Automatic annotation (TrEMBL):
Classification via CDD domains: MIT_C (cd02685)
Chain positions covered by the region annotation Disordered: 498-543
Residue span(s) of domain BREX system Lon protease-like BrxL N-terminal: 10-141
InterPro entries (UniProt xref): BrxL-like (IPR014061), BrxL_N (IPR046838), MITD1_C (IPR032341), MITD1_C_sf (IPR038113)
Segments forming domain MITD1 C-terminal phospholipase D-like: 551-696
Gene3D superfamilies with a match to the protein in the record: MITD, C-terminal phospholipase D-like domain (3.30.870.30)
Highest taxon, organism lineage: Bacteria
Listed name of the protein: BREX system Lon protease-like protein BrxL
Species the sequence originates in: Tabrizicola soli
Length: 703
């Protein structure tokens, strides 16, 4: 086990499972993941590989012998009749029959009802009265001649999903983990390897959980295919349901006026609409109207009666175009069905999760470590729905006064959900609260900024907050930073048809502040006023980049500052493993491509030796030296065996010193095994980690 896995098992023994075992046991059993994980938690809660394999075989045998497939229900009923008794795995629900004053059970897959259940069993497993519990049940068959008698007898029942939990124990366990460890535990719980994600990407994954922990929360996520949008809503929780966006009707979702029966919103904590996008999809306008009222007021009407519900809504769908295309030609809601492409509906969404920031799921992204049995976490999240943490920031920060009530509600509900996920016991630091508040504001800002493109009557809003010292934090979305020219377009005016496009370099546009360095990097390089015929070149300055940002390359980031240098020295203590060596090689390629023909460049690396595999490290460096040498770049390196170097920077003999807070390791992991992936071939198609670069000019050139 890793240190984190050992810690997880120590403080949550019996409630965790190794996540890679689920696929090994599922087979063709149409049984929810949370049931499988419960069984694995019972038989495979160990780090001994032999015991794990034995446990896997035990779980497989249990499923093979006792799981009830609906199409085999008649055969199983017959076998129990012939033998007199049998054991089955099924979802068991219980209801009180007031006429007989007795509890009666129903078996979902086996198809039997009115099975008598004793009161003690119901008291121990009260969840059977609400939504049903997957269980291993001992059934007996005893036919009697009396009228209305039921031959089925429940001889014993053992729940195989959480029927109760200790919330205080959960809080005590949370206190043993740092924030970073807790985030990684939650990421492993939903099935992903935390090492494959940066901090921001992890928080975006956890945003998908907010509908489970926050009542009446409205989330939308649109993005490319294959990013796992529906994963969290399909089998993660027994309290959520995933339905196709085109299959829902008013009676199914809300209420049937004919029968008076309430729909899905009365039975589920979270309802997710899969495949929600599609401009040509046929949608019932009456459904949209009721949906808008429910999203705003948590209520809907049945005739003259008004009913309320607490179900949260998640709308997930695919986009067809790139973010830049949508911002230039339409907006980020362009794929919504026509009847949902309505400012009144969109305005009721609390947050827009940017699906384009989430990478396509690859094999190495799946978890192999330990996480909560998802049914355990599902019960915790349901318990937390009763709490309200929406104002936990108020002692530290104040939202801008221009933020409307509806915008404020969206921000606060997202913030409350994140606080309950990460800090159920409180204890967040001011910086952690700042981080979550910023992300919550960003989610609502993405909705509102697009609304202002769709409907010009919406007023401008300053999405910012102020701390107690008066420091103002202005929140930006990542696509706003990447595409400032298109992001701040407004709708076509009704009179004249002119498109309003603010100057992205103007401070009031909301774009990043214009500086010589940022202007140069983003292609905004107007002539100097003093020398109108001479373009402004690289200049001293400081620039920051957000996690998941794209469009960045060593050529744009460093190339202009390296032009003309005959000697370049890179100091970076971590040039060891393959992806770090590849980054180094790509920087050397930039040097080779930009240097004048007929000139050579000396490039020196100062790094630290790899304590785990110095031979491999040296071998990589030798290959790089031999590969780049014919291109006119003389590459040498030196090891600082004292391991005292921490700074990362580039120094040229032309007087530039470039401070790199992450060194060359600025790109997130790409699928380097896929030769047809653009991110494999070109840096600007890769997402980056959060990093900063400072450009300093150190006196006159020495060349």
């Amino acid at each position: 086990m890793s240190d984190l896995d050992a810690k997880i098992n120590e403080h949550f023994a019996g409630f965790v499972v190794r996540k890679d075992l689920v696929k090994a046991v599922k087979g063709n059993a149409i049984v929810p993941t949370y049931v499988l994980e419960y069984l694995l938690g019972q038989y495979c809660a160990t780090d001994d590989e032999a015991s794990i394999q034995t446990g896997i075989e035990t779980v497989k045998e249990i499923l093979h012998r006792h799981y009830v497939h609906r199409n085999e229900a008649g055969l199983i009923r017959s076998n129990i009749r012939e033998k007199g008794r049998g054991k089955v795995i099924d979802k068991v629900s219980v209801a009180l029959n007031e006429k007989t004053d007795a509890y009666e059970a129903s078996f979902a897959n086996l198809g039997i009802k009115k099975v008598l259940v004793d009161s003690d069993t119901v008291k121990k497993n009260q969840k059977m009265l609400v939504s049903g519990v997957w269980s291993i049940a001992d059934l007996e068959y005893d036919h009697k001649e009396e009228a209305n008698s039921v031959p089925w007898v429940l001889a014993g029942l053992k729940p195989i999903q959480m029927s109760s939990f200790d919330f205080d124990a959960y809080l005590a366990g949370r206190a043993k983990f740092t924030t970073e460890e807790w985030i990684d535990l939650l990421i492993q719980t939903i099935g992903f390897n935390p090492d494959a994600f940066g901090r921001r990407s992890k928080l975006l994954q956890l945003l998908r959980l907010i509908p489970y922990v926050e009542r009446n929360y409205n989330l939308i996520e649109l993005g490319p295919k294959g990013t796992g949008k529906s994963h969290i809503f399909s089998e993660f929780s027994p309290h959520g349901i995933l339905i196709s966006g085109g299959e829902v009707t008013v009676p199914k979702l809300f209420v049937s006026n004919a029968s008076g029966k309430i729909g899905l919103v009365g039975y589920w904590d979270t309802i997710a609409f899969d495949e929600f996008a599609g401009r040509q999809k046929k949608v019932d306008k009456a459904l949209v109207d009721i949906m808008k009222n429910y999203l705003a007021n948590k209520s809907f009407s049945r005739g003259v009666e008004t009913l309320g519900a607490e179900a949260s809504m998640a709308f997930i769908g695919n986009t067809k175009h790139s973010v830049a295309y949508m911002l230039k030609h339409t907006d980020l809601f362009e794929e919504l069905p026509e009847k949902y492409y309505d400012s009144a509906f969109i305005d009721r969404l609390h947050a827009y999760l940017p699906g384009w920031e989430i990478d396509v799921i690859r094999g190495e992204m799946f978890a192999t470590g330990y996480g909560f049995i998802v049914d355990y976490l599902a019960e915790v999240l349901r318990h937390l729905r009763g709490q309200d943490r929406s104002l936990d920031y108020r002692d530290l920060f104040t939202l801008d006064a221009s933020i409307s009530t509806r915008d404020r509600d969206g921000v606060q509900k997202t913030f409350s959900g994140l606080m309950k996920l990460l800090f159920p016991d409180g204890g967040a630091t001011p910086e952690e609260i700042r981080e979550l508040l910023t992300l919550a504001i960003e989610g609502r800002k993405r909705v509102k900024d697009q609304l202002m493109r769709i409907d010009s009557t919406y007023p401008e809003v300053e999405f910012s907050f102020t701390d107690k010292t008066g420091r103002v934090t202005k929140v930006q979305t990542l696509e706003e930073r990447e595409h400032p020219r298109w992001y701040h377009r407004r709708s076509v005016e009704e009179m004249g048809g002119a498109v309003i496009e603010p100057d992205p370099t103007h401070p009031s546009s909301g774009a990043p502040a214009s500086t010589p360095v940022r202007d140069f990097l983003e292609g905004r390089n107007p002539p100097s006023s003093a020398e109108p015929d001479v373009p402004r070149g690289p200049a001293p300055g400081h620039v920051t980049f957000a996690e998941n940002q794209k469009g960045i390359s060593f050529d744009a980031l460093l190339g202009p500052w390296l032009d003309g240098a005959a000697e370049i020295t890179l100091t970076d203590p971590y040039i060891r493993v393959y992806h770090q060596m590849r980054n180094l090689m790509e920087l050397l390629e930039v040097v080779a491509l930009r240097k004048p023909d007929g000139e050579d460049v000396q490039f020196r690396l100062i790094t630290t030796p790899d304590p785990d595999d110095l031979e491999r490290q040296t071998g990589y460096l030798e290959q790089i030296r031999d590969g780049i040498s014919p291109l006119g770049v003389e590459f040498t390196w030196a090891f600082d065996a004292t391991s005292t170097i921490h700074a990362r920077h580039l120094v040229t003999n032309t007087g530039w010193k470039i401070l790199l807070d992450r060194g060359l390791d600025v790109f997130q992991r790409a699928d380097l095994n896929n030769g047809f992936s653009p991110a494999n071939r070109h840096q600007r198609y890769r997402q980056v980690k959060a990093f900063e670069v400072t450009y300093l000019q150190e006196g006159a050139a020495t060349r």
